[in-house]
Each structure stands twice: as C-alpha cells, then as structure tokens.
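Dear Dr. H.,

I hope your travels went smoothly. While you were away I took the liberty of generating a structure for the chain from your last submission, since the lab meeting agenda had it listed for discussion. I wanted you to have the full record in hand beforehand rather than looking at slides cold. The sequence, exactly as received, is reproduced here:
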Amino acid sequence: MSLRTRPASCAHSLRTASFPAMDHNRRSVLKLGVVDVGVESAALPNGVTIDLAVIRHPGASAIVALDADGAIPLLTQYRHAFGGWLKEIPAGCINPGETPQVCAKRELREEAGLVAQQWNALGTIVTIPSFCDERITLFLARNLSDAERELDHDEVINVDRIPLEEALRMISRGEIIDAKTIAALHLTREFLRAGNRIVDAVGRGGR
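The corresponding predicted structure, in token form, is as follows:
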C-alpha cells in the first residue's frame, strides 16, 4: 500500500490559473487544496440574476495506459469524501505551467510507475457542471516502460494490471463507478475499434 499527495502545488495552481472571463461577481468562501469555493452573482441567458455556489478548478488529466498485452494499470484508491475505495485510472490536477499532456505524463509516472512514448488525446469531459468548472482531458498512452513511482503522503493507492476488456466488464458489473475512468475506457475501446483513425492530436514523445 502506498501513500501520496500534492496539496501545496494544487493550491498554488488555483491561485495562478487563469479562468475564462465571466459576467459575475465572486465572493471567495474557501480555498483549500484543489477546492476554490465561492458565491457568484451570475446573469443567466434568460435574464435572471442568481447567486450560485461555484467551485473553480485548475483542470486535470487522466490516462489509460495500454501495454503490448492489452492490459492497463488500474488504481484502487482510498477516497475519504466517497467513504471508501474506488477503482480508477491514473489522474491528477494540472500544476502551474503544465499542459494537459505534461500533467498526464507526470501523473502516469508518479501513480503507476510508467512512462509512455506514444500519446493520443481521447477528448475532454466536464464532471459536475452544475457547480464546478473542472475539465478533465483524457489520454491513451502506449509504448510503455517502467519508471520509479513518486508517491506523496496523503493518497492511498494500490496498482493492479488488468486486461482492458476485463476493465470494461468491471464497468458493466458495477465494480468501476468512477466517471472519468468509465468515459476514458469506453473512448479507448472506440479509438482502437476505429483502427486508430482518430487524429493523433498530441503525437509521439513529449510536449
């Protein structure tokens, strides 16, 4: 069992990240780790003005790392807010100055102990748009090699190697319920079924 965290850098990214200009006034309520909670006066398209509780987030990346045998690293991670363990793919928040792909490379190495030579962007998802602006960029990583994991102290993570098709069956059985993981695994399957005809938006190697 391994332990991990990155509270200082994520908190810093909240202070330095630039968010799109919006027609609202914001009153900060709490800034702690990746959480930036505020109350915003928002003018809606229907002409109504309303106060909304909104969480601002620096964004994140998540990775399906597929090896030559068709298996992926699947994390079992303790999530206090959820109240237990979740099956997830490697993922984490974007640090200051990082692109989504740079973040993805860092998280794959730190959480799964892997580096990849081939990267494909699968798309971007929004998680809880009713009160949070988090966007998660999803990647497929291949041509893998081992690297040293670098785990921080406040995450509890175990890593298993699971065939991709078994991971998809775990979704059907309700064993994987994490939204980013479900989306990324299904997008990976569609990408592979398409014979990699989707445009490689990020290419090979690093950016």
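Two observations you may find useful: The helical segments are 7-16, 100-112, 164-172, 179-193. Residues 1-24, 197-207 have pLDDT under 50 and may be disordered.

With kind regards,
E. W.
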